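dumping this here so i dont lose it
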């Protein structure tokens, strides 16, 4: 993830583009050159709109995280989407607000793009077949209107895919984890969400292979790896938790032995003082407390 170029900073948030994303853009443009493909002009529009929507989506996460008093200072764009480095307070509400902040941006853009299409006289293209978007795209005679519909299409696609796929690192997986966390513990919510994520990744992988969708297959593989990494972190936390318990237990035993030695040393000092008083003044000079000290010492030595 360190192979990235910094584009700049907005409100203290660094925006970076991964080198693989640049390679992906170049490959997509070269692929669009043959006449039987979508064409370089439309491909460039799609990539530019996708870049903008993903960037706005990630800024939504960052703004939401800061609203709940969290930290957010980095956005990375790469071929499989965007990654916002957010550290909200460790509560399910703060995490849920941070996660929902991204899809909320896409949701707010839905009526904007749909309204623009309606005003442009293309209300019939607002609802379209998601499996055949090229049919609706063919209804536009200018690049400007085509760009507007592409923005509408990609925005809805990103919103639906992000929210409806319960798999890490997609927002759907995080939303499921936060909702489970609200009813159980954070640890338990992660365990359940990881299992759900593995199942989702497997289903997406099968769909990608059947439909020959390379990007979808990449997302499925990446999601599976992220879920595996989350499960590995859980196992590591368990191991560290057990080690910390043993260390704490050993520390408590050492402290207890130290206290016992300190008490024993104080007792021996008191016994020596009592014996010295007896030697100088006799038994009759002892107070009630001093006699008890002498009795305890006599009993201890008799027992040993």
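and the seq i came up w/
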């Amino acid at each position: 993830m360190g192979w990235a170029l910094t584009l700049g900073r907005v409100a203290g948030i660094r925006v970076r583009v991964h080198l693989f994303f640049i390679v992906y853009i170049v490959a997509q443009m070269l692929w669009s050159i043959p006449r039987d493909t979508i064409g370089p002009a439309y491909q460039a529009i799609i990539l530019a709109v996708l870049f903008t929507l993903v960037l706005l989506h990630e800024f939504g996460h960052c703004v939401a995280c800061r609203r709940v008093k969290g930290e957010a200072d980095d956005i990375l764009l790469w071929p499989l989407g965007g990654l916002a480095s957010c550290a909200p307070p460790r509560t399910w509400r703060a995490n849920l607000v941070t996660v929902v902040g991204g899809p909320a941006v896409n949701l707010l853009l839905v009526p904007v793009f749909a309204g623009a299409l309606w005003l442009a006289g293309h209300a019939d293209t607002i609802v379209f077949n998601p499996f055949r978007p090229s049919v609706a795209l063919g209804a536009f005679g200018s690049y400007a209107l085509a760009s507007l519909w592409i923005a509408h299409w990609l925005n809805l696609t990103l919103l639906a895919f992000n929210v409806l796929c319960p798999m890490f690192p997609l927002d759907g997986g995080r939303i499921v984890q936060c909702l489970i966390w609200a009813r159980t513990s954070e640890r338990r919510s992660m365990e359940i969400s990881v299992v759900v994520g593995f199942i989702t990744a497997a289903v997406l992988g099968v769909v990608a292979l059947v439909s020959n969708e390379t990007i979808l297959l990449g997302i499925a593989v990446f999601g599976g790896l992220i879920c595996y990494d989350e499960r590995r972190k859980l196992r590591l936390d368990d191991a560290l938790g057990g080690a910390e318990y043993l260390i704490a237990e050993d520390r408590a035993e050492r402290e207890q032995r130290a206290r016992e030695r300190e008490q024993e040393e104080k007792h021996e000092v008191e016994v020596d003082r009592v014996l010295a008083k007896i030697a100088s003044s006799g038994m009759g000079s002892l107070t009630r407390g001093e006699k008890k000290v002498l009795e305890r010492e006599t009993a201890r030595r008799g027992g040993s």
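The longest strand covers residues 71-78.
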